[in-house]
Design goal:
elongated; alpha+beta; 3 helices
């Protein structure tokens, strides 16, 4: 009645507070610190009259039929959405159109005497549009890569040219200094002689 799930292995028909760690049943350990434990309320696994709802699954069919459960077959309300899983379900090849087969488990409604089939949107469906978009993305990526490479080459050329000019300017200034020094030494020698 209060919305506390039953936990297997807790042999009581009341609520208990257990110290739980991530990965335990009845405990969502998301958004917590690593290894953090919390004390949470759970109900014991013993069935009693105070239970409001009890969800069960038939594991093994007995000798007799259960009316309403094992006697009549109910169609699947929902089928797969993903294109590859639809192909797997209907044993299709890649050339077959997947859209035709989704209508088998679509919901049919009648409006103004016209039947409408509401089918789920097929995910991961490879169409001409998706292929074109993929090709455009690939071409853009390639163009960007080539642009980066050409810009890098141009930059390297510019750097090498600047370095060459710098070396030339330095050698010219050194040559001037050397010429000035040689001239001053010659003038000193001329004065001494």
């Amino acid at each position: 009645k209060q919305g506390f799930a039953m936990k297997q292995g807790v042999l009581t028909n009341q609520r208990v507070r257990l110290l739980m760690s991530p990965g335990d049943q009845c405990f969502r350990g998301y958004g917590r610190r690593k290894g953090e434990r919390r004390r949470k309320s759970v109900r014991g696994c013993i069935v009693s009259s105070d239970l409001a709802v009890l969800n069960l699954v038939i594991v093994k069919k007995g000798e007799k039929e259960l009316p309403g459960l094992t006697t009549d077959e109910k169609p699947r309300l929902r089928g797969p959405k993903r294109a590859s899983r639809i192909r797997k379900m209907f044993n299709l090849t890649k050339e077959d159109n997947v859209r035709k087969y989704v209508t088998t488990y679509g919901k049919t409604t009648e409006k103004n005497g016209v039947k409408h089939v509401h089918c789920p949107k097929i995910q991961r469906l490879v169409t001409a549009v998706t292929l074109r978009r993929k090709a455009i993305r690939k071409a853009a990526k390639k163009a960007q890569h080539e642009k980066v490479q050409t810009e890098a080459q141009e930059y390297q050329k510019l750097v090498s040219q600047r370095l060459k000019e710098q070396r030339e300017r330095r050698s010219e200034s050194l040559a001037k200094k050397r010429a000035v020094r040689m001239a001053s030494q010659a003038s000193k020698e001329a004065v001494e002689a």
